[in-house]
Every structure is written in structure tokens, then in C-alpha cells.
Write a structure and sequence with these properties.
Layout (H helix, E strand, L loop, with lengths): L1 H45 L9 H9 L1 H11 L6 H16 L12 H21 L6 H30 L6 H18 L2 H5 L10
Helix pairs in contact: 1-6, 2-3, 3-4, 4-5, 5-6
Length: about 210
């Protein structure tokens, strides 16, 4: 009889323990779900990229620079519903950003443009890294979204500066003056007696 009672009490204890574990697991799952929902909402709210050119020059490059056009297009296609969709989109944006090093228009193929592209790529890759972590630091992801937008503006303004500078005509007579200066230097270099280069005092008059 005592054995049956002990077995019965043990069974109740096991069932109660299992129930407590289930409730604990359920509470942890709900907590995790709320945390993930908060992360998703924060990223979803902040996920607003500059996907349209900010000036005429950048707009012109959309038609002539395929990689730039594809990058902006990828930025404008906002993901929906799940954090997985944002992760997939982030990877696609990173791939398009890397392609910006290719086929840069000749007039823009300058260190100032390349350095800005490099910084932009770095920011995009950092965002892609953070959003794929098991514990997503949503504050860092949202901060980088703002940084990426700043780099896009910086790049487009530099495009505008380079193209506009190239349009500025030289001052009247400046080109002729530069040509005359080059000609004068060439004449002077050809008229120098090679002997004087080795003995500059050779032809100088003696001082009694």
C-alpha cells in the first residue's frame, strides 16, 4: 500500500515538473517572440533608403551606368513580413554595392569617387553582417541604414562636383598662355650648352 502511495506521489511530482517545464518553455518562447517582433518592427521602420538620384548628374548616370541603376533599384525594393526577407534583401544590396566598382564612367573614374564607393560598400557589408547574426543588434542595423544614406548623398554630390567642374571653361587666354609657357620651357632646355652643365664657370670672364 505504501509502495502504491509513493508511486502515485512520484507520478504527480513528475507530471507537475513537466507542466512547470512546459510553462517555462512557453514563457521563454513568448519572450523571444516579442523580442524578435520588436527587432523586426525597428528594422522595418528604419528601412528607408535613398533610391532616387538627388541631383541631375546622378540621374543622368542612372541611364549610362548600369551598376548604379541596379544598386538604386535594389534599395527601392523594400522587403516585407519577416526578418528573413530583410536578411535576403540585405545580401542582395551588398552584392549590388560590390558591383559599383565595375564600369565606372570615364569622367567619374577618379580617386574621389572610388574612395566614396569603397566607404559605401563597407557600410553595406557591415549592415549585412549584423542583420545575419543570431542575435540581431537592431540598433546597429538601423544606424547603418542612416550611414548608408549619407554615403549615397556624398557620392552623388561628388559626381555633380566633378561633372560641373569639367564644364567650367578656361579663362580667356589661359590656354594660349599655358601653351606659350610650355614652348618657352622647351626652347630654354634645348639652348643650354651641355658643357656648361658640367662646368658652369667655363665661359665666365676672369676677374683680374
Amino acid at each position: 500500500m505504501k509502495y502504491k502511495i509513493s508511486l502515485f506521489l512520484l507520478l504527480i511530482f513528475v507530471l507537475q515538473s513537466c507542466q512547470n517545464e512546459d510553462e517555462k518553455r512557453r514563457a521563454e518562447n513568448e519572450k523571444e517572440a516579442k523580442k524578435n517582433e520588436k527587432i523586426f518592427n525597428n528594422i522595418n521602420k528604419a528601412w528607408v533608403f535613398i533610391d532616387e538620384p538627388i541631383n541631375e548628374i546622378a540621374e543622368q548616370k542612372v541611364s549610362s551606368w548600369n551598376e548604379w541603376r541596379e544598386f538604386l533599384k535594389e534599395l527601392g525594393d523594400k522587403p516585407r513580413k519577416t526578418i528573413g526577407a530583410f536578411q535576403k534583401k540585405s545580401k542582395a544590396i551588398s552584392k549590388k554595392a560590390m558591383a559599383l566598382n565595375n564600369n565606372i564612367p570615364s569622367e567619374l573614374n577618379q580617386p574621389a569617387i572610388k574612395s566614396r564607393i569603397s566607404i559605401l560598400i563597407t557600410k553595406v557589408k557591415m549592415m549585412d553582417l549584423f542583420i545575419h547574426l543570431s542575435a540581431i543588434p537592431d540598433e546597429k542595423v538601423t544606424f547603418l541604414i542612416g550611414d548608408i544614406n549619407k554615403e549615397i548623398v556624398s557620392l552623388e554630390r561628388q559626381m555633380d562636383k566633378i561633372v560641373e567642374k569639367a564644364k567650367i571653361p578656361k579663362e580667356e587666354g589661359e590656354a594660349d598662355f599655358l601653351r606659350m609657357l610650355d614652348t618657352t620651357r622647351a626652347i630654354q632646355s634645348t639652348n643650354i650648352d651641355p658643357a656648361l652643365m658640367h662646368n658652369p664657370d667655363k665661359n665666365l670672364p676672369k676677374v683680374e
